[in-house]
Automatic annotation (TrEMBL):
Name of the protein described by the UniProt record: O-fucosyltransferase family protein
Transferase listed as a keyword: yes
Family assignment from sequence similarity: Belongs to the glycosyltransferase GT106 family.
Domain of life: Eukaryota
Organism of origin: Coccomyxa viridis
Bias type Basic and acidic residues, positions: 1-11
Annotated stretches, region: Disordered: 1-71
Compositional bias annotation for Polar residues: 42-67
Keyword field: Carbohydrate metabolism, Fucose metabolism, Transferase
Length: 484
């Protein structure tokens, strides 16, 4: 199946990287499920054209128009883009340059069809916790790479406390979210360079006057400052949060929204051609059914590098806990904080939850010979006694020689200087290096950690998740959270 790809554009200098966009690069990307294409998409060192495999090319050239046959055509007519934007023409049998030209002259101009290659700048929101944000980035990068848009990174978020009750329902939610710089979680400069080499421009997050309402992710569109003229170029894609669209379906919805908006703009603005279209998406968390194009999702996940500061802190913890790597350790994501109390209730209470953890640790092969690194938000809000009780339980069950946390290795001054999601990411990066790992089946943090460990080359069998099927998220996670 062919999917449309737009051009990469250079806008006027806005003061936040857009003026530094690379030169125009385009192509019609053909999605293939053959092994060769999958191998190319899975490589982190793929060449610049790896995202444009089997390209039919949308590059302007002297061969893209025949002036003797189409003297009345607009100078910027692009026949390949014309066909890519209007699949109905291809379905009707039009597939050549002359056919596209004839259709436009006979019907397309009068119908107001877009005849030039569109330039699309995609904006999106990443919502709620650390890994929900990360999945939002993965979905946005995947869609942007499929349609050839330039991408503006969403801002990062931090919560006020793990002690606050989180709910998707505004009237029940207690968590307060505030924005933070994306480079506090991701290695933004490295990501930009990586994607530039792959043929896609990624831009740093512009100033955000106000944060959209994270209590309503369906309508949490980015709210950047724009002139009235720029706002007219905006088109919004809706009905994506948690919808797990197949990538071809999502591409088609995007194509239709962008092309129809561009056609309306062309009719309204006859004095000068439109320069670009701003595509706005609300929270992109689980908007994509990742298994619909798993090679691409895997490739994207490999390229979203974490912040060097946090990677360095994780290195310090591992070195201190393992005598510089001489001794192995196991990892546990203990999801028993107050903000996750609904899960405990659905599971049947704290006792049942602990039984689930014990069964998972036994399956993973935990024993009393190895130290256990435990990640939990309990200590972030002063629940020290709860953590002591948890450590006693783990030791008594014979699943570790000793329990370790980041608070044992990082000075309080360092920890106090980290935002909530930064602390969570330090834990994530340490857990990822355990010989064996146990997490909670209905936590995106736990689920993605298993995927990440597999990406790093650890056997999938070394990661076990507590059976939380009663909560009802298994099917969605398998469809939208699977990366490897």
């Amino acid at each position: 199946m062919d999917v449309w790809v737009d051009d990469h554009h250079q806008s006027q200098d806005t003061g936040w990287d857009l003026g530094q966009a690379a030169s125009q690069r385009t192509g019609v990307l053909r999605i293939k499920e053959d092994k060769a294409a999958a191998d190319r998409l899975g490589s982190t060192t793929a060449p610049r054209d790896s995202l444009q495999a089997e390209s039919q090319g949308l590059h302007p050239s002297s061969e893209s128009r025949n002036s003797t046959e189409a003297e009345d055509l607009p100078e910027d007519f692009d026949w390949q883009a014309y066909l890519a934007y209007y699949p109905d023409l291809v379905s009707s049998g039009i597939s050549s340059e002359s056919g596209a030209q004839q259709h436009y002259l006979a019907h397309g101009r009068q119908e107001g069809r877009v005849h030039r290659r569109l330039k699309v700048l995609m904006h999106y929101t990443a919502c709620t916790g650390l890994i929900n944000q990360h999945y939002s980035h993965i979905a946005a990068f995947t869609l942007s790479s499929a349609i050839g848009a330039e991408l503006v990174l969403a801002p990062g978020l931090q919560r006020d406390s793990f002690a606050s009750y989180f709910s998707a329902h505004n009237e029940q939610n207690e968590v307060t979210w505030t924005s933070m710089s994306t480079d506090q979680l991701l290695d933004v400069d490295r990501i930009i360079e990586e994607w530039r080499a792959r043929g896609m421009d990624v831009h740093k997050t512009p100033p955000l006057p106000s944060l959209p309402n994270m209590g309503d992710p369906d309508t949490a569109y980015p709210q950047y400052q724009q002139s009235p003229e720029e706002e007219r170029l905006n088109v919004r894609l809706s009905d994506i949060y948690l919808k797990a669209w197949d990538l071809p379906e999502l591409v088609e919805r995007t194509r239709k929204a962008v092309v129809e908006h561009a056609a309306r703009m062309e009719l309204e603005q006859t004095d000068a051609p439109i320069d670009h279209i701003n595509l706005y998406l609300p929270c992109t968390f689980f908007m994509l059914r990742s298994i619909s194009d798993l090679p691409r999702a895997t490739m994207v996940a490999r390229t979203l590098f974490f912040a060097p500061l946090l990677t360095g802190l994780a290195d310090e913890i591992v070195a201190g806990m393992t005598a510089a790597g001489a001794a192995p350790f196991n990892s546990l994501h203990l999801r028993i904080e107050k903000d996750a109390k609904d899960w405990s209730t659905i599971m049947g209470g704290t006792g049942v939850l602990w039984e689930g953890y014990a069964a998972a640790m036994q399956e993973a092969g935990f024993d009393n010979q190895a130290p256990l690194y435990t990640a939990s938000g309990l200590l972030t809000y002063g629940a020290a006694q709860d953590m002591v009780d948890a450590e006693s339980t783990l030791t008594a069950l014979g699943f570790c020689s000793s329990v370790h946390t980041k608070e044992m290795y990082l000075p309080s001054k360092v920890l106090d200087g980290l935002a909530s999601e930064q602390k969570a990411l330090v834990d994530f990066l340490v857990l990822a290096r355990g010989a064996r790992y146990v997490g909670f089946g209905s936590s995106t943090f736990s689920f993605f950690l298993r995927e990440h460990r597999t990406l790093q080359g650890l056997p999938r069998s070394s990661s076990v998740l507590v059976d939380a099927s009663v909560i009802g998220t298994d099917a969605l996670f398998q469809a939208a959270a699977t990366i490897v």
